[in-house]
Write a structure and sequence with these properties.
alpha+beta; 2 domains; six-stranded mixed β-sheet; three-stranded antiparallel β-sheet; 9 strands
Length: 252
Amino acid sequence: MAVQHETELYAPLKAFFEERGYVIKSEVRHCDLVGVRPGSDEPLIVEMKKTFNLPLLLQGLERQRLSPEVYLAVERNRAKKGAHNQRWSEITLLCRRLGLGLIAVTRYKTKPAFVEILCAPGNEALYTPGPKVVKRRAEKLLHEFHERSGDYNVGGSTGTKLVTAYRERALRIALAIEEGGGEMSPKDARDRSGVGTAAAILQRDYYGWFRRVVRGRYALTPAGAEGLRQYAHVVDGWRRVAATAEREGERL
């Protein structure tokens, strides 16, 4: 069954790697899918496209500066016409030579998608070492991954506002102000939200969510209240985690 949007590949890929012990999050510093195994500092990166093409290949080479574990994922649909759907062995050989992993995703109407690894990153004798990992960029990727409380985006999204770690911090501050009476000092916002950079976020006001009422006092703007409504699913996720932790604490 042909995919209409590359985002349709995300769910089966996420499930596939979660079954193999990865924690998966999407759209982390422009990477479609990022996975981290507990205790590991080397991320898995997957870039997705509906079909194999040069932009995807170049994207994969660029991602090798962040991690040696880079996969390219495309749909496998025998009904499609075109050279790229008839030459899987040659495409696989190309990826092997470049040290890139290749995944084919076959979707069906009545059963779950089938995810097949055609080659893994750098595991073949033909492997030519890719670009050297840029340590600072890799650290930024992992920092963004770990700072996010969950996976609130869909990999492969374009033209949509992403839930980044920074947006989550701004949401926590907005929630603290709303629940704290509608007006708050940066210190109180920091203490109530748990965001150590609350003062800087309030002063910068990147999203237009906050306004200074008087010196040292901030309130939510209508845009801030709308932001809390728009990202209510994120706030609900925090509350579910907190409730679960509380129940676990009671059992202990």
